[in-house]
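Progress report, Aim 2. The chain analyzed during this reporting quarter is listed below.
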Amino acid sequence: MSKMKFGTKVLHAGIKPDPTTGAIMTPIFQTSTYVQEAPGKHKGFEYARTQNPTRTVLEENLAALENAKFGRCFSSGMGATDAVVKLLEPGDEVICTNDLYGGTYRLFTAIYQRYGIHFKFVDLNDLSAVASAINNKTKMIWVESPTNPMMSIIDIAEMVKIAKKYRIWVCVDNTFATPYLQNPIDLGADIVVHSVTKYISGHSDVIMGAVITNDHILDQKIGYIQNAAGAIPSPHDCFLVLRGIKTLHVRMDRHCENGKLIAHFLKNHPAVQSVYWPGFEDHQNHAVAKKQMRQFGGMLSFTLKNDSQEVAFELMRKLELFSLAESLGGVESLIGHPASMTHASIPKEERLKSGLTDSLIRLSVGIEDVEDLIADLRQAIG
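Predicted structure tokens for the chain:
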């Protein structure tokens, strides 16, 4: 078969009918171990922390979606991020985007800095600042694009260009974009991380992460960490994600369509001050978004002209269809307050440097009828 397009990959890449029964769905191999014919003589599976057939199929499918060769799944997005940081050694330095998911910031600063790994938070849109932050201890540039929650777009190809000059890795958290909208490996990134919990699973019923690469040596190191540290997902969760992936492209089209309409509704509302969404032509890096993304996603953030936390909280209390909850990327629409929820672990002074105020509101636009979503926002904003 010729090279599969994305909508075919989600259904077929790495997935074959079960050879025993012909089941079209990958079975849930709910087992802790595997019987061996003799010591060391087995069917490719020894112990379920090390390998599981359901997980293997999912890992191969995720790698294919990112146009990569290797994928490893973890028990959460943070477990995947943790595995990547474990590639480093005490004394190493990482340059990170200064607009970063709060859980990632917490892991970097509260956990790994205690072990001698140092993190520099830099505006990655300032290429001279990135180059200036690099020294002989720098081993990685950590990118989110779009960023959480300010929806900044980082030029991945430019980050790769700088990194190759200094022979350092580029790791991209591709959670917001998903493999359907953006493929960092194609842009030269060494590693891609996903919170599979979000759009890839898409139904708010799984916690999972993934690390994807084209580099055999990196994959072997990540695989060693996966087995040694043991932060693996369950076979049942792998099955649920395989089911969710089958509609990823269909869901993302609707997320993007709804996100666009809601972004424009908010931008034109007299009570709204600012809307952060990369599809606007006046977005700081709209041209970069057009270059490296296929569409602009279903995530956006906004502030009101009455710029207070209390007014933001009152708006969120009035909503009926948008549920107040952490997480994102599910089929249902969610609203969140980053300063007190997803990014509360970041000190206020650091949040403000990237524009994350106490009144910022973040939307994960779902796949409901967009007219109902807009009506809900209209009545809540007043």
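The mean pLDDT is 95. The chain has two domains: 6-245, 248-381. These observations will guide the mutagenesis work planned for the next reporting period.
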